[in-house]
Design a protein that fits this description.
Layout lengths: L16 H22 L7 H21 L3 H12 L10 H18 L3 H20 L10 E8 L9 H7 E12 L4 E10 L5 H9 L7 E5 L8
Antiparallel strand pairs: 1-3, 1-4, 2-3
Helix pairs in contact: 1-2, 1-4, 1-5, 2-3, 2-4, 4-5
């Protein structure tokens, strides 16, 4: 019974109408599973998730038509080589989703419908688990602090006492001149202590930097384009 999962419903490169419908429906079902898992805890566009749903069926059709036909396979490869994809680089998870959709479409097109369905379920479940548990994400308590300082003010050691009072950890990431060299812009990664008022912290800082601009916000997500 278990070995039947690894058996193709298509033999000798020929298929019937019922086999074609089964492989197509399985490919679409896999696409829905992949897209549904991707939509949880991920940024996405309607166009991209629609692509994830339909791509397995498109790949399945190509594979089922050229299965066992070398000449048709060469012709399809030549046709695809004429296509020029011009788009911005995708995020890592987007590219993974595309490859997953193509893989299950390939399996469905070769008749391995249970492998396609099982693989889509397993990988989508793992992807969902990693997203829900925030696997690999940076410390979510880290914030970015930016302070403008006049050029005539010695900022070194100026804020250290306040940092020790309100912050658990801090590190200078960047110091640069701005506004034609009339201001210093300090950028730090900070972690506030528990039950600390960010308003009191910022109020204390602005009394030392001449009431110039100060910002405290979440860390921006690092680019993960491949």
């Amino acid at each position: 019974m278990f070995n039947d999962i690894f058996t193709s419903i298509i033999s000798n490169g020929t298929f019937s109408g019922s086999e074609f419908m089964i492989t197509t429906l399985v490919a679409l079902l896999c696409g829905v599973i992949i897209a549904g898992a991707y939509m949880i805890k991920n940024r996405y566009s309607r166009s991209f998730v629609t692509t994830l749903v339909l791509l397995p069926a498109v790949v399945e059709l190509v594979i089922i038509l050229v299965n066992g036909n070398i000449g048709a396979g060469v012709a399809v490869a030549g046709a695809f080589s004429l296509v020029r994809f011009r788009s911005a680089p995708g995020r890592g998870q987007e590219i993974t989703g595309i490859f997953l959709a193509m893989a299950v479409g390939l399996a469905a097109g070769m008749g391995y419908i249970w492998i396609a369905l099982l693989f889509a379920l397993i990988i989508s479940a793992i992807n969902l688990l990693l997203n829900v548990t925030h696997f690999g994400s940076e410390n979510r308590g880290v914030r970015m602090l930016k302070i403008l300082v006049p050029e005539n003010l010695d900022y070194e050691g100026l804020f250290e006492e306040s940092f020790r009072k309100y912050l658990k950890e801090y590190s200078y990431e960047e110091v640069r001149l701005t506004n034609m060299g009339s201001l210093y812009k300090l950028t730090l990664n900070v972690i506030l202590k528990e039950h600390v008022s960010s308003k009191e912290f910022l109020d204390e800082l602005r009394t030392m930097n001449g009431n110039l601009e100060i910002s405290l916000g979440r860390m921006t997500e690092a680019a993960d384009a491949l």
